[in-house]
C-alpha cells in the first residue's frame, strides 16, 4: 500500500542496490581502514567500557 502511494506521488522506489563488493574504490577504502586500525589499535580499556554499558 505504501509502495502504491509513493508511485502515485511520482517517487521511484528502487529496492536493488548495486554490488560494491568488488569495486576498486571501495576495496581501496576498506584496505586503508584496515591498515589504519592495525597501525592505531583501539585501547583495551575502551572495549571494556563498551561491554559494561
Work out the helicity level: 55-70%
Global structural class: mainly alpha
Largest sheet: none
User: What would you report as the Rg, rounded to the nearest angstrom?
Assistant: 21 Å
Percent of residues in β-strands: under 5%
Describe it for me?
Helices cover 60% and strands 0% of the residues. By secondary structure, it is mainly α. The chain has a domain at 16-52. The longest helix has 16 residues, at 24-39. The two termini are 40 Å apart. The mean pLDDT is 78.
Question: What is the compact description of this entry?
Answer:
This protein has 53 residues and is mainly alpha-helical. The chain has helices at residues 2-8, 24-39, 44-52.
Supply database-style keywords.
mainly alpha; 53 residues; 60% helix
SSE inventory with pairings:
Layout: H1 2-8, H2 24-39, H3 44-52
Amino acid at each position: 500500500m505504501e509502495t502504491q502511494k509513493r508511485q502515485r506521488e511520482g517517487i521511484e522506489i528502487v529496492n536493488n542496490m548495486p554490488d560494491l563488493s568488488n569495486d576498486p574504490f571501495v576495496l581501496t577504502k576498506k584496505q586503508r581502514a584496515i591498515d589504519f586500525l592495525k597501525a592505531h589499535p583501539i585501547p583495551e580499556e575502551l572495549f571494556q567500557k563498551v561491554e559494561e554499558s
